[in-house]
From TrEMBL:
<keyword id="KW-0966">Cell projection</keyword>
<keyword id="KW-0282">Flagellum</keyword>
<comment type="similarity">
    <text>Belongs to the FliE family.</text>
</comment>
<dbReference type="Pfam" id="PF02049">
    <property type="entry name" value="FliE"/>
</dbReference>
<dbReference type="GO" id="GO:0071973">
    <property type="term" value="P:bacterial-type flagellum-dependent cell motility"/>
</dbReference>
<dbReference type="GO" id="GO:0005198">
    <property type="term" value="F:structural molecule activity"/>
</dbReference>
<dbReference type="GO" id="GO:0003774">
    <property type="term" value="F:cytoskeletal motor activity"/>
</dbReference>
<keyword id="KW-0975">Bacterial flagellum</keyword>
<protein>
    <recommendedName>
        <fullName>Flagellar hook-basal body complex protein FliE</fullName>
    </recommendedName>
</protein>
<keyword id="KW-0969">Cilium</keyword>
<dbReference type="GO" id="GO:0009425">
    <property type="term" value="C:bacterial-type flagellum basal body"/>
</dbReference>
<dbReference type="InterPro" id="IPR001624">
    <property type="entry name" value="FliE"/>
</dbReference>
Amino acid sequence: MSQGIEFNRLMLEMRSLQADAMARSRPVAESKPAEPGAPSFSELLGQAVGKVSATQQASNQLATAFEMGVGGVDLSDVMIASQKASVSFQAVTQVRNKLVQAYQDIMQMPV
């Protein structure tokens, strides 16, 4: 159950990152000054990538434990952990793709 909570937390953070990115894309006159001590976008993105990595490692450890025959490890738990790791990786990949596309769009703007 804690893996479900971690996945939900990851998705909430991804939505928060998206909202943060959308807020930063507004003109400077409309944006609010950054709160003191608030994490930067790169820090939030780094944390999200770290959590995806942790989810993948947990999934791999669970799969290895199942393959070794460790008691208490069910195949359904292994498959659920694997799917969570896959979905979280796909989400981070999509965020990366959007960031790359935004960078390319900005670079192609006439100056």
